[in-house]
Amino acid sequence: MFLKVALLVLRKDFAIEVRSREILFTTLFFALSCVLVFSFAFVKEGEPLEDAASGILWIAIAFAGTLALGRTFERERYGETLRALLLAPAPRPAIYVGKLIGIVLLLVVAEALLVPLVALLFQATLFARPLLLSGLLLAGTIGFCAVGTLFAAMLVRARTRDVMLPILLYPITVPVIIAGVRGTSALLQATPDEAAATMWIALLVCFDVVFVTLALWTFEPLMTE
Amino acid sequence: MSDFDQVRLVDVSRHFGRRRAVSHVSLSARSGEIVGLLGPNGAGKSTLIGVLATLVAPTSGGVYYGDGSRGADAALRKRIGLLAHEPHLYPELSARQNLTFFAELYGVKARETVDRALDAAGLGDRGEDEVSGFSRGMRQRLALERALLHRPRLVLLDEPFTGLDDRSVGVVTDRLRRLAADGAIVWLATHDLDLADGLVTHVALMRDGRMLVNEPAAPGLRARYRALIGSA
């Protein structure tokens, strides 16, 4: 039942996105614009600033993720459909999981375009250790979205939601961003530091377990008015 | 799954900060009754509907479904249907996609239930159209059918006649009477006293979060309303 409801919510979000393509296009456009702007600032005469690539990649992911989170729940606010979901005879955390998987998949698509662009513009060897990089990106994205999905759902009824989401989200996800940046930097060294990258992935997985568990535990009481 | 044949609100209050949206309200309804929740704007009708729907937790007091008070568990929610101010529909999806999604969420057979609901909403030939292209009245009819897809025992309706033309109003009032006759408990929050008169079997008149009147319905609802609201 839990998985079925999560998949129903995911399928519904996918069907809406297929029809509108609104969130995918805005998120991609914003993420790519972000990287391009940074490239103008940090690449001088064809030489990128040392270690800039990992930070810019994760900043673009965080900014694009915030935009996607806000827009995804704006849809549920219009027509108050989130209330209809909460009223359904389904485990409420399953609704959270369905939304979380949708946002993670959306950001994975964005990352599939961001990584080659950052590698190209910043001459970064991001594809030297593809499995470790994929692990970092996936674990980091899940951690960021786990907190973001909870906060975005909580703020649906708040008038200041657009301002409050980044204010609440960024301080709490700072450990995720730091782990992502440091892990990616370890892979971008002349000799990739696989041990350090693995350690940062392990730390991110720990964050994911803590954040997802807390979110599943608190979603129902937080969503009751 | 447990069922119930009555709903009781016992001394229910709900405060939002310092604002008392609902204050010490006690009220009950049995299977087959249509309770008219009446009152001016800000009376607390929508909050009370939210409390009954398990979406708003009371600050104090209790809501009893059947014999006992229960939390907002899935089995209870399966017996509740809500038509709120907003339609609870996704405008980007077609009418059929909306109904199919909610039918599956409620665990009812999607195909035949959805076909029946589209026909009942008078949208049998518009099922594949996006809801964003519908008029207010069409959305409202679809929203009502969405709320009734799973044949709920407790039907909560917040201004269900908004945006409906004369013919649709007749269809909806007939539908509500049939629901009550089939054993549903219907709570209807409305400003439309003319429509409520003759439809509701019980009147609960609220003002500033408090219950002014809780009595069986009688003809001359508008005159009674004016006398009470004017003198309260």
What's the short story on this structure?
The complex is a heterodimer of chains A (225) and B (232). By secondary structure, chain A is mostly helical. Chain A is built from eight helices and two strands.
Provide structural commentary.
- The complex is a heterodimer of chains A (225) and B (232).
- Chain A has 225 residues and is mostly helical.
- Chain A is 83% helix and 2% strand.
- Chain A has one domain.
- Chain A contains 8 helices and 2 strands, in the order ααββαααααα.
- In chain A, a hairpin with a 2-residue loop joins strand 1 (43-44) and strand 2 (47-48).
- The model of chain A has no long low-confidence stretch (mean pLDDT 91).
- The mean pLDDT of chain B is 88.
- Chain B has a domain at 6-68 and 76-90 and 155-231: P-loop containing nucleotide triphosphate hydrolases (Rossmann fold, 3-Layer(aba) Sandwich).
- In chain B, strands 6-7-8-3-9-10 form a 6-stranded mixed sheet, sandwiched between helices.
- The termini of chain B are far apart.
- Chain B is of the alpha/beta class.
- Chain B is built from 8 helices and 10 strands.
- Chain A binds chain B through residues 5, 8, 12, 15-16, 19-20, 75, 78-81, 83-91, 224-225, and chain B through 50, 53-57, 72, 74-75, 77-78, 80, 82, 84-93, 97, 101-102, 104-107, 130, 146.
